[in-house]
Amino acid sequence: MKFRLEDISTEGQETIINESAEWLEDRLAHETFRFFYFVTPIKLHLHLRRSGRIVILTSALEFTVKWVCARCLDSFVSPMKAEYTTTLRPKPDRPLAQEVELTREDLETEFYEGEEIDLTNLLQDQVLLTLPPKVLCKEDCRGLCPKCGKNLNREVCQCAEKDLDPRWAALKSFRAH
């Protein structure tokens, strides 16, 4: 996704792009097992505006993901939405100092070289940052029984009552006041 600097006006430019899940395959290739799959195309609503050589990118992302619950391993689908604002500046000619304390503005700044801005990696990062590191099918998901493997959201299991580790037996009668 490349944009020529001279084509971006000061009033702004709107672009809507739909990308398939394959757009992220190179970035996700190292994942041996994924807990998510894209169900719908990734809709990218981009607004670019320019002030001199500085470009402000506002991106709104929408897509639907099929997840595997981190506790019970059931599948479920959920929509995802996110908005980001990024300032794109020309890459500085001189190297940056060794140690720099970053501000919030620094974290929302990217650099480009030349007269063309390639947003592919930036937008892929934004999609991946929208995905939470751990997802649950519901907030109070009870997960799987560690002994018999039953899904505790659907079935009652008697394992916990039967098998008490003898090392914890003394705590069974413990009461806190």
Quote the beta fraction. 25-35%
Q: Radius of gyration, rounded?
A: 24 Å
Order of helices and strands: EEHEEEEHEEHH
Cα separation of the termini: 63 Å
Low-confidence stretches: none
Q: How many alpha or pi helices?
A: 4
Counted up, domains total 2
Biggest beta sheet summary: 6 strands, mixed
Indicate the percent of residues in helices: 10-25%
Task: Look at the structure and give the mean pLDDT.
Answer: 86
Structural class: mainly beta
Strand count: 8
Instruction: Choose one word for the global shape.
Output: elongated
SSE map:
Layout: E1 2-4, E2 13-19, H1 25-28, E3 36-38, E4 42-51, E5 54-68, E6 75-90, H2 104-107, E7 109-112, E8 116-118, H3 120-130, H4 159-162
Parallel strand pairs: 6-7
Antiparallel strand pairs: 1-8, 2-4, 3-5, 4-5, 5-6
In short:
With 177 residues, this protein is mostly beta strands. It has 4 helices and 8 strands, in the order E-E-H-E-E-E-E-H-E-E-H-H. It has helices at residues 25-28, 104-107, 120-130, 159-162, and strands at residues 2-4, 13-19, 36-38, 42-51, 54-68, 75-90, 109-112, 116-118.
Question: Any overview of this molecule?
Answer:
The protein has two domains: 2-141, no CATH class; 142-177, no CATH class. The strands form two sheets. Strands 2, 3, 4, 5, 6 and 7 form a six-stranded mixed β-sheet that branches. The chain is 13% helix and 34% strand. The chain starts with a strand and ends in a 15-residue tail after the last helix. It has 177 residues and is mainly β. Strand 6 (75-90), helix 2 (104-107) and strand 7 (109-112) form a beta-alpha-beta unit.
